[in-house]
C-alpha cells in the first residue's frame, strides 16, 4: 500500500487496526514538526526528543482506546503541549512550597517542637496545593517551581497572560488564607 497518498486521519485508522507500516509512515511524517514544537518549549534537546518519542509510543500503545475527533496533527500537538506542561511540573527546580515558607519563616524556629510543626505545615501546604483546581494548580506549579514568567506560561498553555496572572494570584490567596488559619490553630 502506498501511504504517501493517505491523510494523517487515514493512517491513524490503519494504525488502530495494528498496521505498523502506517504507524512508521505517520511517525516519519510528523516527528520533526512535533520535535520542533517541543524544542521551542523545553531547553534541552534530549528532553524534547524524549517527549516526542513518548508521544508516539503512547499513540501506538493506546491506539485501541484513542478516539480522535478532527485532525490527527491537532490531537498530537495538544497531547505534546500537555506532556510539556507535565514535564515542567515533574522536573521542578525548587521546592513548590518555598514561597509559602518564606511568607511564614518568622513563625518557624528550629526547635524540636517547631520542626514538628514545620513538617505538619509542609504536609498541609502540599495537601492544599493538591486541592487547587487542576488548571490553577498547573499554573501555580509552573510559576513557582519552574520559575516561568506569566508570558511563558501563557504561551505554553495557550492562554492569556492576564489569565495566568489571575490564576497565580488566586492560588496564593487561597493558600495563604488556609495556611494562616492553620497557623493560628498551632500557636
TrEMBL record:
It holds the Pfam family Sigma70_r2. It comes from the Bacteria. Residues 123-174 form the RNA polymerase sigma factor 70 region 4 type domain. Keywords: Sigma factor, Transcription, Transcription regulation. Residues 33-91 form the RNA polymerase sigma-70 region domain. Belongs to the sigma-70 factor family. ECF subfamily. NCBIfam families: sigma70-ECF. This is RNA polymerase sigma factor. It comes from Sphingobacterium anhuiense. The lineage of its organism: Bacteria, Pseudomonadati, Bacteroidota, Sphingobacteriia, Sphingobacteriales.
Amino acid at each position: 500500500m502506498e501511504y504517501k497518498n493517505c491523510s494523517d486521519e487515514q493512517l491513524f485508522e490503519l494504525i488502530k487496526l495494528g498496521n505498523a507500516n502506517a504507524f512508521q509512515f505517520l511517525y516519519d511524517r510528523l516527528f520533526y514538526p512535533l520535535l520542533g514544537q517541543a524544542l521551542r518549549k523545553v531547553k534541552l534537546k534530549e528532553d524534547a526528543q524524549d517527549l516526542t518519542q513518548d508521544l508516539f509510543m503512547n499513540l501506538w500503545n493506546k491506539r485501541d482506546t484513542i478516539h480522535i475527533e478532527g485532525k490527527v496533527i491537532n490531537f498530537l500537538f495538544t497531547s505534546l503541549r500537555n506532556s510539556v506542561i507535565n514535564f515542567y511540573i515533574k522536573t521542578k527546580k525548587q521546592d513548590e512550597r518555598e514561597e509559602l515558607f518564606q511568607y511564614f519563616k518568622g513563625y518557624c524556629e528550629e526547635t524540636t517542637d517547631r520542626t514538628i510543626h514545620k513538617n505538619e505545615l509542609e504536609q498541609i501546604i502540599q495537601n492544599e496545593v493538591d486541592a487547587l483546581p487542576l488548571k490553577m494548580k498547573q499554573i501555580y506549579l509552573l510559576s513557582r517551581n519552574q520559575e516561568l514568567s506569566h508570558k511563558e506560561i501563557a504561551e505554553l498553555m495557550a492562554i492569556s497572560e492576564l489569565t495566568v496572572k489571575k490564576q497565580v494570584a488566586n492560588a496564593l490567596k487561597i493558600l495563604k488564607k488556609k495556611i494562616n488559619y492553620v497557623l493560628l490553630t498551632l500557636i
